[in-house]
Amino acid sequence: MSLSDRDLKVLWHPYTQMKTAKAPIGIVRGEGAWLYDEDGNGYLDAISSWWVNTVGHSNPHIAEKVAEQLKTLEHVLFAGFTHPKAVELAERLLKVLPKNQARIFLSDNGSTAVEVAIKMTLQYWSNKGIKKNKIIAFNGSYHGDTFGAMSISGRGAFVAPFESLLFDVDFIDVPVSGKEEVSLSQLNEIIEKQKDNIAAFIYEPLIQGASGMIMYEPEALDDLLKICRSNSILTIADEVMTGFGRTGKFFASEYMSIDPDILCMSKGITGGTMALGATSSSAAMYDAFYADDKLKTFFHGHSYTANPVACSAACASLDIYDEKETWIAVERIGIQHLNFAKRLEGFDSIKDVRCRGTIIAIELNTDEGTSYFSNIRDSIYDYFIAKRIILRPLGNIIYILPPYVISEEDLNLVYDAIIEFFENKS
Ligand SMILES: *Cc1c(COP(=O)(O)O)cnc(C)c1O
User: CA angle, corner 158, sides to 222 and 275, nearest 5?
Assistant: First the structure.
């Protein structure tokens, strides 16, 4: 029996309607930007395996460091104990994070990094004896799949079955080009109505990933952040997707003049090797918990918090970010995307092309709209899989979000396949 046949008997896949989905492709090996199936066919990973892989599959440097760590110390509980790789990781992250960040809290994935952020901001006010419990988020945002993260995510099909149990959040529009004023006035209106009850504002800086690579400008976000700051609203940058070079800088928050109070990381933190989440916070945040009063403790943790193997993968990945070749690659991908955007001009079936750093998104002109469930999405996916290129459109939006190790030639393969797709369409 093939791997996919065995899989179909026992597994349940994420975001997959098991009845109608095609059988999963059994991948047995990865190298650089390529994944290989049981029959030896190569698939070009143009979306970094769900946005996590930055440094290439089966990266030899990370593999070596992880193997070393496994033989030295595989795990130790992180309350009452510490270990070298957690300390090193926190020290190194604080060197690259926005300057005001002072503490690192570790967890397991992007959703937990966000849960930690929400709980920290709410308890921050509680510890200070101030009653504030409202959170503001963007319409269409995606912050993860646990209940807190779902609550602060845009309402839609993914959360519909749980909607009655999600806590109440105020949503404002994303300040995309032309909508900056709308977004600002919505924020001001909420502040006016609720005055002193707003605890925090959470946002995906510059790019809303899951809702279709929606992009907006740093100045527009800065304006919102300034209002938050002057109204004592804590700001949480969810950089789970945008962190670790994705937008051209280490963190997207570097594009803004206002540093966030809290920043969430995951996905690229281990270069795409292992699950790890991290939530960084300012010193002021930390100080609100630092007390003789035990009730001011941050009561949150996971069994695998600060797992040494995951931390060593993250440190090894940071070694790769220390090399200037990595940043040359990030810049080169951005330039290639901008040139590719010019090749896409003039196709009637294209509504919009947008780029930021290593991400390019192409929005199709379709009657079906942007639904994640549109048939067009499935047919585009199948089209590229048949060409052995992994692209997973978000509704009618095709995007490329590659590992930084992708070669110029391999990226051109993806571009040529997309051009061919549009030529066949028109
Ligand atoms: C993927 C993602 C998350 C959730 O991360 P998981 O590791 O999948 O739980 C949260 N926020 C953003 C912006 C994301 O892109």
Answer: 70
